[in-house]
Design goal:
Shape of chain A: globular
Helix content of chain A: 25-40%
Structural class of chain A: alpha/beta
Radius of gyration of chain A: 18 Å
Low-confidence stretches of chain C: 15-19
Distance between the termini of chain A: 43 Å
Number of helices of chain A: 9
CATH architecture of the largest domain in chain C: 3-Layer(aba) Sandwich
Oligomer: heterotrimer
Order of helices and strands of chain A: EEEHEHEHHHEHEHEEHH
Strand content of chain A: 15-25%
Structural class of chain C: alpha/beta
Low-confidence stretches of chain A: none
Mean pLDDT of chain A: 90
CATH topology of the largest domain in chain C: D-Maltodextrin-Binding Protein, domain 2
CATH superfamily of the largest domain in chain C: Periplasmic binding protein-like II
Largest sheet of chain C: 10 strands, mixed
CATH class of chain A: Alpha Beta
Mean pLDDT of chain C: 87
Shape of chain C: globular
Distance between the termini of chain C: 62 Å
CATH superfamily of chain A: P-loop containing nucleotide triphosphate hydrolases
Strand order of the largest sheet of chain A: 5-6-7-3-8-9
Number of helices of chain C: 11
Radius of gyration of chain C: 21 Å
Number of domains of chain C: 2
Chains: A alpha/beta, B mainly alpha, C alpha/beta
CATH topology of chain A: Rossmann fold
Strand content of chain C: 15-25%
Largest sheet of chain A: 6 strands, mixed
CATH class of the largest domain in chain C: Alpha Beta
Largest interface: B-C, 32 and 38 residues
Chain lengths: 236, 234, 268
């Protein structure tokens, strides 16, 4: 049974008297990849963190279909700047499995498979902080996927990456989607949004301004602000 | 200047002739300070890490207290331990006064705040780096402490070595609680104090050089061990 | 891993806890600095199989250690304090063992002409008039108490002295180091002086007055106050210290050809 659907009811986050997002109501269900778009400071990352449950709510509720304790273990998050443990590539991959108390033989096996998939099989014992930016992001993604989460959150996973690395990341996401992982991600890259997105959420000034299926939204945005965003205009 | 030359000369001969007394007190110095180091680290490393990752009501107070204790004069620690362990004190029945155990207790009290404080500083930085990931992975408090200690082990080694340096070079407290008894509680530092008192500066200096060599030796040994342990992966 | 680690700690902590028959005795720094203990202790261990652990402290602290029951016996040289100790029931009795003497040490230039003094009273009078630097132990030790008593007998009040009178609050050796550094006068026991390695510009200026006589006494700690005190071992040690073998070793102990101690225990 999946941990979905995820429901956000009247959620808002305020910090130091300033509202970051809210009020937001949202239901996440089904399969595929949801793209969160929006200008800088519109609350994309905050929304992602709220869904993942690592942001303290000022009001409202975030509810999964299963109790929170179970839901916590079946989702993963990849940060915009990949956080590398000061350990080897292999130990970074193995970390979430060890936390879950996975058998040692299985840890070794799955670590090897994932290292192969991200092309780091020959550098298993290299300290992860010494990898290049693209390699770090791939490692972070593999570390997030190694426990086969129901839901995966990604915050601008391809910011600052070259074309080749972006392509490899997207290929990994396609595989995950094919295996039934529900993905929610933010991006600044409209091309990537079109290539990957099944659904679009457009954030503006801390609120969901427009939400819809990808093919229709890209062709015919319902609000003048999203149309302006697609044209590349500055939205006041 | 002549004294220093005499001291070096005496130190050289004490070492090459493997002077039995010198070896005995050097080993005792190591035994007392290394034991104190192991016990203090077992307390201070988790404590310092815990203080770095957990926000609780008395946290600020605990940290201030730790920093204050770090500056505690060893003689005061010695005096308090002495009074507690004295036959007429609350723990007198244990008969620990003037034994190496009493010296270990005093040194643990002296170096635990130091190690915990350095650990806290180092772990705060690492925690800032790891915070989001460990929260996201829904780690328990114990898992966080263990992950930080393991990944910060190099800095923690430095903290532990600082503690060891303070322990092995300490004289005020162990003089009081150990009593500097020949063949029982005499260590390098108390022997140095004794020889200085007798005006035998050459011997005192010789012991001082041995002490310095010992401290450097332990530092190098630990660093070397930690490098070989992780050479393949790091 | 963890049990083995704990076992290691326990082994380290208790490594030297086990030992043969040992007795703890608090002695004064002057006794230890004389080097006599290096002769007596091995002989005691050979003769009666007793390991004597010495706590080398000032007389004041030695008496405190006895009062608290932290030692089994004390060997000090401050008659009034010793009698008070026995009077208060902390010690069973006081047994005189031997004596040595105090000497007046000062700079070679001897600005107060102490070397010309006819008595210790005269010597101290010259110092008090001339006011050269004088180092006092100031640590409530037997030597310190004796020094204060000597000033009093010479009709001076040490508390009223000016800055030339320095109370250092340290043991005999450390005080001699200070005196050597300041080119100051100091009262020391002969044994510590002869064994002192850093004489610098100091020399022995006056000795020999009977008032400088320094009696050492042995006081077993009262087992009625502290039942862990090894009265049996103290008794063995007292027998040995007052016996012929001790007399031979004490009277025969010399530094630079000078006899330091005179055995004067009364054999019962």
């Amino acid at each position: 049974m999946s941990i979905l659907p995820l429901t956000l009811r009247d959620v808002s986050v305020r910090r130091r008297g300033k509202r970051l997002i809210g009020p937001v109501d949202l239901r996440l269900d089904g399969a595929g990849l949801t793209m969160i778009l929006g200008p800088n400071g519109s609350g994309k990352t905050t929304l992602l963190r709220v869904m993942h449950g690592v942001e303290r709510l000022s009001s409202g509720a975030v509810v999964w279909s299963v109790p929170d304790v179970q839901a916590r273990h079946r989702q993963a998050y990849v940060f915009q700047t990949p956080i590398m443990l000061r350990r080897s590539v292999a130990d970074n991959l193995a970390y979430p499995l060890k936390l879950a108390g996975t058998l040692r033989s299985e840890v070794t096996e799955r670590t090897a498979i994932w290292a192969e998939r991200i092309g780091l099989a020959d550098r298993m014992s290299l300290p992860a902080p010494r990898l290049s930016g693209g390699e770090k992001q791939k490692l972070a993604l593999a570390r997030a996927l190694i426990r086969a989460p129901d839901v995966l959150f990604l915050d601008e996973p391809c910011a600052n990456l070259d074309g080749a690395s972006t392509g490899e990341i997207e290929a990994l996401l396609h595989t995950a989607l094919a295996q039934g992982t529900r993905i929610v991600m933010t991006t600044h890259n409209l091309g990537q949004a079109k290539r990957l997105g099944n659904e679009v959420i457009f954030m503006l000034r801390g609120q969901i301004h427009e939400q819809g299926l990808a093919e229709r939204t890209f062709d015919a945005p319902q609000t003048p602000e999203l149309a302006a965003f697609f044209r590349g205009d500055i939205i006041p | 200047m002549n004294d220093i030359y005499d001291g070096l000369h005496a130190a050289f001969w004490l070492v090459v002739t493997l002077d039995a007394q010198l070896i005995e007190i050097s080993l005792r110095s190591l035994q007392v300070s290394l034991t104190a180091l192991v016990i203090a680290s077992a307390i201070a490393l988790p404590l310092g890490t815990f203080l770095a990752i957990r926000r609780f009501r008395l946290r600020r107070l605990t940290i201030s207290l730790l920093n204050a204790l770090m500056g505690l004069p060893p003689v005061v620690v010695g005096l308090i331990v002495y009074i507690l362990l004295s036959r007429s004190g609350p723990f007198g029945v244990l008969g620990l006064l003037f034994t190496p155990t009493a010296m270990i207790i005093a040194q643990v009290i002296i170096i635990t705040p130091l190690i915990a404080s350095i650990t806290h500083q180092a772990m705060r930085e690492l925690w800032a780096e790891y915070h989001d990931l460990l929260i996201s992975l829904n780690t328990s408090g114990g898992q966080r402490v263990r992950t930080l200690i393991w990944d910060g082990r190099r800095t923690l080694l430095t903290a532990a070595l600082a503690g060891f340096g303070r322990a092995i070079g300490e004289v005020g407290a162990i003089m009081i609680v150990g009593g500097n008894i020949d063949n029982a509680t005499r260590v390098l530092t108390t022997a140095i104090a004794l020889e200085t008192g007798k005006g035998d500066f050459a011997l005192a200096l010789a012991l001082g050089f041995v002490l310095i060599a010992l401290a450097i030796g332990v530092n190098i040994a630990i660093h070397w061990l930690s490098r070989t342990e992780s050479e393949g992966r790091w | 891993m963890i049990p083995r680690f704990l076992a290691l700690i326990i082994a380290l902590v208790f490594a030297s806890a086990a030992a043969a028959e040992t007795l703890r005795m608090a002695v004064t720094t002057s006794f230890d600095n004389s080097g006599l203990s290096d002769v007596l202790l091995p002989a005691i261990e050979r003769d009666i199989g007793l390991e004597v652990q010495l706590l080398v402290v000032g007389t004041g602290q030695a008496l405190r250690l006895g009062e608290a029951g932290d030692v089994d016996a004390i060997l000090v040289h401050s008659r009034a304090a010793e009698e008070a100790f026995v009077e208060a029931g902390y010690g069973t009795h006081r047994r005189e063992i031997m004596y040595n003497d105090f000497v007046l040490i000062g700079p070679l230039s001897d600005p107060a002409s102490v070397a010309l003094a006819g008595s210790v009273r005269d010597a101290l009078g010259r110092i008090a008039r001339e006011e050269p630097a004088f180092v006092s132990r100031g640590d409530d030790s037997g030597t310190h108490k004796r020094e204060l008593a000597l000033w009093q007998e010479a009709d001076f009040d040490a508390a009223g002295f000016g800055s030339w009178y320095r109370e250092v609050g340290a043991g005999m050796g450390a005080s001699l180091n200070t005196a050597a550094g300041l080119d100051a006068y100091i009262l020391a026991d002969r044994a510590s002086w002869l064994n002192f390695g850093n004489k610098a510009g100091l020399t022995l200026l006056y000795a020999g007055d009977p008032a400088l006589f320094n009696q050492y006494a042995f006081l077993p700690v009262n087992p009625e106050r502290h039942d862990h005190v090894r009265a049996d071992l103290s008794a063995q040690l007292e027998d040995w210290l007052t016996g012929p073998r001790a007399k031979e070793l004490i009277d025969g102990y010399m530094i630079d050809g000078e006899t330091l101690f005179t055995f004067n225990a009364e054999v019962e």
